[in-house]
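In this section we walk through a basic example: taking a raw amino acid sequence and producing a predicted 3D structure, encoded as discrete structure tokens. The instruction is simple. Fold the sequence below.
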Amino acid sequence: MRLEAKLALFNALSKLLLVLLGALVIPPIVSRVAVSHTDQRLHEKKREVLALIARDGLTAFVRQEQNEAYADYNILKQEYISLTPEAGQVPVAAVERIFDEQRQVDNDVEDFRILSYQFAAQGRPYRLEIGSSLATVELLEATLRQLALWVLVVGALLTIVTDAAFARFLLRPLSDLITRKLRNVRHPSAFPFAPISTSTTDFRRLDDSLNEMMHQVQSAFEKEREFMSNVSHELLTPVSILQTRFENMLQDPDLSHAHSLKIVESQKTLYRLRNTVRTLLLIANIENEQYLREDSVSLATVLAEVLNELDDRLTQRELHLHTQLSPDLVLPRANHTLLFTLLFNLLSNAIKYNRWGGSITVTGSLLPGGGYRLAVADTGPGIAPENLPHLFDRFRRFNAGGAASPEGFGLGLPIALTIATFHEATLTATSELGKGTTFALEFAGEAATKPSDT
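The resulting token sequence is shown next.
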């Protein structure tokens, strides 16, 4: 999972946890707020009533000589005010309390939040009650709770979106670094050293460290290339001299038959050494880009040339060949000779490690995302899974089942990989023991043109 996705997932989960926590915490808080708001309204109404009593006197509400009580309900019976005279001694100080209690309104019994205030006026004790229906309180509480939850949910969603956008913006330099400097670089020589645009110090340090490391890798590759090229050139001269000397020695009429056989064996060894040196020189020249890509090459044409070259070997091992390039692929910028060598090595490998009377299948097809795939599959014994990662290593040879092979020098597949990389293509291998091996050559979409089917 990408770091950006992990951050987005963490933010979403944390916001979800926050919403759940809010769902648990908000109701009691809202309940207290609603009750506090109701109590505040009751106190305000109490002050208004006392102000009216102070201004107009008790006669505006009750008749003292008849011990009348005053009560007033609003039309919806959600609030009421009552003022009643009480028996007993006049309280020294006013007594106030707030409580929940039922009251009968007409023929209905309702729950009220009641403010009770006992005070003395004109030498007599009175009780002032101001009540607010608990249904009103509960409605206010439900409204506040719903509003708070909506604000919490909407806020959480907004923060998830903004956090994801900010994380993407913050990690964009890292994504650019991975894409531009790691994923799209096929060879150290093609590494872009231009610094990424970022204001984050950590990303700058990472970019600088990566550039420094790639400078070292590039230097090591250049030294290796130079060494291989120089050694290959230097070895060709003494090998040619030795080959000439052996040929001259064989022309000597006084040479015994036993010595002639030894010289012939030495010539065979020298011939293999010369081929190895030339192969290393070919790899070095390709990596040093000493070959040009000026040809417009059809894979079907090159494949036909390779099969014509290998026809005798196919017949000798009684192998069945199946080819299907539909459509064909024409590379506008390629090297015909190198592509011939590439396909020759792949097919030669399929013949060499195939079973007697087996088959070889060559297929070409368009890739769904663009590009072209050429696959060479055989029915040989396959390659052990532990050997697949080392299949393209130089001087590594594998036999059926993974044992070391005594034939060749293990340079055919490295050459094929080098040529594929030179043409901006990828070469991969898949294998299953007892069923065979498939080599897949994939060309990028922008590097391939596709004519009509052949």
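Looking at the output, two observations stand out. Helices lie at 3-56, 134-183, 201-250, 257-287, 299-316, 336-352, 412-422. The chain has three domains: 3-140, 201-287, 295-447. In the next section we compare this with other chains.
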